[in-house]
Amino acid sequence: METTYPLMALQWFDPNTELRILVGIHGHQNVQTMINLMEISRGNGFTSLSAYVTDMIEMNDNNTAMFIPDDPEDDNHRGDDEHPSPLPETDANTTMADESVVSMRDEITNMILSYVEQSGGGIKVHRLLAISTFFNMHHDIYNLSKAVQASLIILPYYKNQRKDGKMGNTPHGFRYVNRKVFRHAPRSVGVLVDRGLGKTIERGSSASVALQVAVLFIGGKYDREALAYASQITQHPGVNLTAVRFLQDEEKELSKAKKKTAYAKAMDEKELNLDNEYFANFYEKQVALRKVGYSEKHVESGTEMVSILKSLESQHSFFIVGRGRRGGRVTSFLESGVSDSEEAPDLGPIGEILADSDFSTTASVLVIQQHFREELEKDEFKIIPM
């Protein structure tokens, strides 16, 4: 029987067990970036990471196949799972009609195999394939993540960086796919906005990596999940992590609390207690032992929040942030001084700021959601015309 979802989230992940992540790619442009993300996600190399790299291909007249791997709980396949080859071809029985897709997948597999051979151990990479219409592709990602029991799904942002550093408006359906995965997948989900992460880390030289990372913490379950992922990557010898906690002026918080119902106040207090408890544990294990840096920022307005974020941009090449949700604690920090552009609402309020081309042309961003399906609001997503 599959473990219930909350125990699959990174917040409850046992660091002494194998971490499984499902990594989606659209093509060659995502490969080196996702390889680097796998590299830092494997931590110190003593713990085990299994990455399931999945080609996400739109179905057309030539592409008619989709592969879903065998259930890892099936006893008939335990032997293969316990003794995998360096790069198992788990979709070997899938027949592809489009030779260009076959060629692309072979090239990507060779790139990943080269990384695995140089990685020094501690990582297993599997290749998967999902071919579907954009309307249904989120179901394939969901089924794959369930079959391999992944704790985290990581997908590329639907925009690619142009030569001028700006994020290009690519008119395709992956934006719709990402939103639907956020809504339906019973795993934590991260969307990666890539601005050169694929160039930041030299493959096969983990000891020389000097990746400056900031994890932003305001509060809520999504930020706690972002902090959990940050705890994983800080084990990597080449990751320099700083935890930045944003705190609001007490008088302003009290003023807002007076306008809330007794139930809303109780829920806010419960959430704040969870935040304080989780962050205190992170501080004790990471900051107090000088494994990561720590910075505390007091914020009074959205304008000040944006100003602080921009000041961090010059010091960090990678940001990790919880997706947040409009109407939650994140919104209270941004209620004044920030235009509601709705440019990237699927990334949440802070993720939208960080993903904007005006924020940075060099800092990549990973926006993470800890998924609780029953708590999603019905109107949280708007349907995008196809």
Automatic annotation (TrEMBL):
<feature type="region of interest" description="Disordered">
    <location>
        <begin position="67"/>
        <end position="95"/>
    </location>
</feature>
<dbReference type="GO" id="GO:0006813">
    <property type="term" value="P:potassium ion transport"/>
</dbReference>
<dbReference type="InterPro" id="IPR057291">
    <property type="entry name" value="CHX17_2nd"/>
</dbReference>
<dbReference type="GO" id="GO:0098662">
    <property type="term" value="P:inorganic cation transmembrane transport"/>
</dbReference>
<dbReference type="GO" id="GO:0012505">
    <property type="term" value="C:endomembrane system"/>
</dbReference>
<feature type="domain" description="Cation/H(+) antiporter central">
    <location>
        <begin position="118"/>
        <end position="200"/>
    </location>
</feature>
<keyword id="KW-0630">Potassium</keyword>
<dbReference type="InterPro" id="IPR050794">
    <property type="entry name" value="CPA2_transporter"/>
</dbReference>
<dbReference type="InterPro" id="IPR057290">
    <property type="entry name" value="CHX17_C"/>
</dbReference>
<dbReference type="Pfam" id="PF23259">
    <property type="entry name" value="CHX17_C"/>
</dbReference>
<dbReference type="GO" id="GO:0006885">
    <property type="term" value="P:regulation of pH"/>
</dbReference>
<feature type="domain" description="Cation/H(+) antiporter C-terminal">
    <location>
        <begin position="211"/>
        <end position="371"/>
    </location>
</feature>
<dbReference type="Pfam" id="PF23256">
    <property type="entry name" value="CHX17_2nd"/>
</dbReference>
<keyword id="KW-0813">Transport</keyword>
<protein>
    <recommendedName>
        <fullName>UspA domain-containing protein</fullName>
    </recommendedName>
</protein>
<keyword id="KW-0406">Ion transport</keyword>
<feature type="compositionally biased region" description="Basic and acidic residues">
    <location>
        <begin position="75"/>
        <end position="84"/>
    </location>
</feature>
<keyword id="KW-0633">Potassium transport</keyword>
